[in-house]
Amino acid sequence: xxxxxxxxxxxxxGAHLLCSxxxxxxxxxxxxxxxxxPLLSATRLENIPPPxxxxxxxxxxxVRKSNFWELEGEGWRAxxxxxxxxxxxxxxxxxxxGIRRSGRGPGQGQGQSSGxxxxxxxxxxxxxxxxxxxxxxxxQACGDPKAKPSYLIDKNLESAVKFIVRKFPAVxxxxxxxxLAQLQKEKSExxxxxxxxYFTFVDVMEFKDHVCELLNTIDVCQVFFDITVxxxxxxxxxxxxxxxxxxxxxxxxxxxxxxxxxxxxxxxEMTHGASDREYPRLGQMIxxxxxxxxKMMEEFVPHSKSLSDAxxxxxxxxxxxxxxxxxxxxxxxxxxxxxxxxxxxxxxSDTMPCEYLSLDAMEKWIIxxxxxxxxxxxxxxxxxxxxxxxxxSSSCLSLFRDExxxxxxxxxxxxxxxxxxxxxxxxxRECKEAAVSHAGSMHRERRKFxxxxxxxxxxxxxxxxxxxxxxxLFVFMALSFARDEIIWLLRHADNMPxxxxxxxxxxxxxxxxxxxxxxxxHVRKYGPVMQRYYVQYLSGFDAVVLNExxxxxxxxxxxxxxxxxxxxxxxxxxxxxQVEDGEVFDFRGMRLDWFRLxxxxxxxxxxxxxxxxxxxxxxxxxxxxxxxxxxxxxxMLVETSDLSIFCFYSRAFEKMFQQCLExxxxxxxxxxxPLLCTHFxxxxxxxxxxxxxxxxxxxLSLCNMFLDEMAKQARNLITDICTEQCTLSDQLLPKHCxxxxxxxxxxxxxxxxxxxxxxxxxxxxxxxxxxxxxxVTNLDKLHTALSELCFSINxxxxxxxxxxxxxxxxxxxxxxxxxxxxSIVGMTMYNQATQEIAKPSELLTSVxxxxxxxxxxxxxxxxxxxxxxxxxxxxxxxxxxSHGEPTITSLYTNWYLETLLRQVSNGHIAYFPAMxxxxxxxxxxxxxxxxxxxxxxxxxxxxxxxLGPYGMKFLSESLMWHISSQVAELKKLVVENVDxxxxxxxxxxKPDQMAALFKRLSSVxxxxxxxxxxxxxxxxxxxxxxxxxxxxxxxIPFLVSSIEDFKDHIPRxxxxxxxxxxxxxxxxAGLPCEIDPALVVALSSQKSENISPEEEYKIACxxxxxxxxxxxxLASNVMSQYSPAIEGHCNNxxxxxxxxxxxxxxxxxxxxxxxxxxxxxxxxxxSSSLLKIGQETDKTTTRNRESVYLLLDMIVQxxxxxxxxxxxxxxxxxLLRNAYHAVYKQSVTSSA
Length: 1232
Hints:
Layout: H1 15-20, H2 38-41, E1 59-64, E2 69-73, E3 99-101, H3 158-167, H4 177-184, H5 187-221, H6 231-252, H7 257-272, H8 279-288, H9 292-299, H10 304-312, H11 318-321, H12 325-330, H13 352-355, H14 359-372, H15 381-393, E4 396-400, E5 403-406, H16 407-415, H17 422-463, H18 472-493, H19 509-525, H20 527-551, H21 558-572, H22 576-580, H23 588-601, H24 614-631, H25 633-641, H26 650-662, H27 672-676, H28 690-730, H29 737-748, H30 778-793, E6 799-801, E7 804-806, H31 808-827, H32 840-856, H33 865-876, H34 888-905, E8 909-912, E9 917-920, H35 932-935, H36 937-976, H37 978-986, H38 991-1000, H39 1004-1035, H40 1037-1048, H41 1056-1068, H42 1077-1084, H43 1093-1110, E10 1122-1123, E11 1128-1129, H44 1136-1150, H45 1155-1173, H46 1185-1198, H47 1204-1210, H48 1213-1231
Antiparallel strand pairs: 1-2, 3-7, 4-5, 6-7, 8-9, 10-11
């Protein structure tokens, strides 16, 4: 029966396979692509909705796993006992700051419609085998080591399996009971578990049968094939042959195929008493196809005419695609600006779909095709030239994903046994030499040309996106050319001899991929622009030309006329308003009708022969391309630029990425690698859903790894720049100016110091003086590298990979926060062993330099660096950061408490009120640090800047904790002397009795020492509070003034709780308060449950008595001498004034006593005790009497509750005046 009769009858068996080989036919659904006549008479397919899955055909895909193969089909011979659905462990990507999950789950992929039910389909078993010569398991798409049947690895069954393989396919089960006895016990399990594997092989056999039947039918019908005329028919015909050839080669590479089939058949025979009905043919097929190409060469002898015609039609297409870079350059290929006058003219070609046809696909067609019909190579020079050109271009072809076929060795092995083929063998060897010697350099030059061509194209289109309309063909040609070169490099990099490895390492591959992604982005972004252009093109030009061609046809049967008229009507009805209204276009039905029409008009007896009307075929091919520009832009991008193959070349992929980052000029293109991860899901298929999770997880992990590495690289560059800037800022510190000043003074006095010829110290800023623009400093290199990398990070705001949205900038922000945190802590240079730490002013200078650099990052990347500062610096004001690590607040608090203040209590450091700083005292053991450099007003202000109010509050709380511990010890001493102190409290006007009682007191020196320590701590806190007030007054003057005004106008009768709240607010702003709220909180926590409030109050009163009566003992201390220069005492007893006032205020606020009354009592006791030492005659006891007298004046001056009038009533002012005169006189005498 001729093909002409198919429009009225059912299609021949297997005819649907040809249709299913092409993407156009996947829109048909459950019906055959060769549907009968009613379709041609009136019904159009463009309105038929696409099916949920393609059901026409037994064999669909060959899916390789990490250590197995899966052959998928629908010719199931056994029901699934259970639907194989394994749970998949999906990483919690949502936890990363740069990733967020979109609305749909991972189970709903890109190819699934959310509005239509998709029924679950039983899946083929994952073949636990892998072809010989495949790549390592780490390079595979997905893997399950447990998927391999246990029968193949069981040591007890090893001998039986080997016996079956050795005797395959004829296994005598009855006479070999000893060898196969062990299988008897397992026969039911073998039959159950291997059925799905076995019937997959059966599906392959049936697919082979259908292909053979279809090819025979094509030969009978004498179908005309020409890729330039009936493109879809020829392409799908060649694709079907390549699919068939590839399948049989892959089948022969499955090492365990005989074991699986033999084991299943043995179990079947033992169970049912007879072999499976398909086994004889299946076993024979396995044996026949041990050398698949040799067998297929015999099969294809009758098909040589059709196949050779189809291949020879590539004679104009393939050589034009396989030109050298110089030829492309001379022709100014892909250039929009080479001819400005024609820039707006549409890009036209008689072979539109051939222009972006995959070079890799054409090479497969030519090499495999001419191997199968090798006879034509001896008779047709055109065929031989095509074949030799293809052999010279590549050394290997891709069978499936990363499984390759070495063409020269295989072809030579096939032809070596054929008589008279010595010349062909020589041709193969010559081509192999040419491929090894020149193919690498030729493709390298092509990639070099394409980089510049795509860059120009992307630049012009970004400026003038309207050119995407007329020059769309250029875009898809550029994408296809670049894709072919990248895949060629990827395929050959692992399969070429090491001696020519340099040609297969391209450090600039990222640039080419980047420009591909840029073109893809332009097409996606300006899709409506292209739609408007081609809707008008179809309706205003294509429809008119096609109508004229149809009218001029000498013969046009009714059915063909109806279809052609429907084409014209469809195009004529298009309008720009449809684009503006957002209408969804669907020309799949039109394209499918044209595909069918190609088949009807390409048979030998067709009334309307397409071979005689080539212009019609070429015009329709152009129209089909134009329709794809309207409704299939995404599909076109996948067809011409899909690089999901990288999913199966993970090592090469990661190596390319590392090379890109290592080369500064290429780092700006590194974003291309994460963008490639968005391609990976396009290599999945709905008939293999279990792959989605493995490939999806791989795409997520790779994208995450790439973005993370990019952010780390940028972070490292920023850190290096910050280090350089901190070094430059350090040069401006005051400590470095002494040498410069000394040199200036010596120069002025004409003194010669130092060695002759000693180089003069460079002044800060010299690095900015450039005598030559060509001189590049390290800082210049770092800034250049950073700007390049930041361009990449800032290139896209986000990208979607398997339903997850990645935000590259968030990766950088996260890394900057972590590094900034570590850098701030690191710059403190705290050494716990030696107790060394950086001065706050130096740290502040470094932090400001660091922040200046980070602020400049906003010039490169659109990130909120203020957010980074807030997150990091606010954490540094706390005791621990978010990771539980110590902060600068904890480090400085610990250092000041444990190092500086501890040395003060040891007598090595004194507080100088005149200098408002702690100063080292001359001692035998010199301290490793200068206290003044850490405690003067400028350093305390720097500390306040760094720690902020929160950090200073933590410092205050830590100081108060130490004070509270001292007060607790003081209370214990009071309890020990409670009886004596009680008597002394009421006997202050009885000198003799007071003297006797005083001798009964114990631990007098300890009380004074502890009170002095408290005073020192409070003095340090006073410095810190004053510095905080200065800093806040500078930053927030209006708020500070409001708080100060609020504090100063609290009425005296205000409730104490309200007043304490105000004091707490004031203290947080650094303002001094009559009652220290932090001290009140610290001391109130000491209340004991075993002691009544009255007893606590009594102890507080007696503590003040104890201090008052102990003051005279200070006069005997040598270090108690008052120094007018420092306005204090060298043993820090002047700090007692602050301690007495603040401890009294806090204690009596807690116990709700009268602060003023208790301080009056203290003043009376203290003045009485001090007046008593005026009567002493022992010079040792009274050596510093006048210096101690001054303490009373200091206490009154410090207190907001005492007045000079009150002091005058207790202690004659003349004594104070004389004391001041004495100490000043003594100071002048000692200095002289």
